[in-house]
Amino acid sequence: MLKSLNIRVLVIGLLCTSPAYVKTLEYYTEKPSYIESCRINEPDFTNCSTRSIQGFLNAVIEASYIESCRINEPDFTNCSTRSIQGFLNAVIEGIPEIEESFGPIDPMKQDQLSFKQENSDIVSISANITNLVIRGFGKMVLKESKVSKKDFSWQDHIYIPKMRIDGNYKMLGRVLIIPLHGSGTLFIEIDELNIFMNATTRIYEKGGYTFFSVIAVSVKLDVGRVWTYMDNLFNGHSKDVERSTNEFFNENWREFYEALHPLIVETVERTLLDLLKKMFNLMPANFFVEDIPNSLALYGLKTRLIV
Fold first, then answer.
1. Which helix (H) or strand (E) holds 7?
2. SS3 (DSSP) at 222
3. What does the pLDDT read at residue 104?
């Protein structure tokens, strides 16, 4: 009910307020493609205005995939899980405002990751991965989404049937007793990836609504199986040794996963943080949690309000 009321208020605000007020809605700093700009002194203004408002209404109606929940209700966690999954499904299918800032969800791209793993008897490795292409987030399933009543942080369980990372690597170190020195292309493929995510949030006001600001994300991972292949190992000196080494890593995948663990964790954390920031900068928190307090009520002090 509250979400429907908020949508009606938002529509009325856009129709009845001055252009200066509309500009203050920072979550629409650029005109969405479904809104047609019209000039009131043009002869066809009424038809143009009708098309424009209908386009906006169509977009709002599509937001019915978000289920409004109340945090003090017994079934809140189940309701919240359904609601966030609905939003994720819409993002995966494509929401223009998110695609413009984030890019496609599947596959998605990252520029570079660097990591070191030197605190283990099994692994001592330094690597730099560039031109990453990540596949699999388009199939993610939200198993559970818990929201803290104290600070509105999140604890989520996300499942991805298969995630694959492709990129260009430079690596120096050792895994088990095998020295590694090379550069080339690699892939890492993970079956049955379970992501246990903690997200730190702050709430703030914008345009008369309450929003989530996602500040930090940390994850723990549980994997079913890991496959990998690195070409040009040992800088291409022996293709037979390269092939047998990759076979050894796949046979002893748990040990090799420990070497890759910092890379995989950072990839997942960076991806989720960027995605969640953009998702929840677009859609008010009130739409998901009807009884969410404003920042003044939650934090007990006056925070910067964006209106």
1. helix 2-16
2. strand
3. 83
CB atoms < 10 A from the CB of 300, how many? 7
64-107 pLDDT, tens digit per residue, is: 667 889 998 999 999 999 999 988 888 888 878 778 878 888 88
Block residue for tokens 């906006």: 56
Q: Please give the CATH topology (third level) of the domain spanning 76-299.
A: Bactericidal permeability-increasing protein; domain 1 (3.15.10)
Within 29-149, where are the H helices? 45-62, 76-93, 96-102
Q: How far is CA 288 from the centre of its chain?
A: 17
Annotated domain spans of the chain: 2-65, 76-299
| Closest by CA position to 193, among listed 164, 155, 230 | 164
What is the percentage of the chain residues whose pLDDT exceeds 70?
Answer: 81
CA distances from 299 to 55, 202, 256, 293 (A): 38, 10, 45, 10
Range 161-171 average pLDDT: 93
Provide the residue type at 201 as one letter.
Answer: T
Which whole-number Å values give the CA distances from 283 to 11, 127, 191, in the listed order? Answer: 15, 38, 32
- The pLDDT assigned to 57 comes to 53
Contact 145, 156 (CB under 8 A): yes
CB 92 within 8 A of CB 105: yes
Q: Which of 114-118, 181-185, 299-303 has the lowest mean pLDDT?
A: 299-303
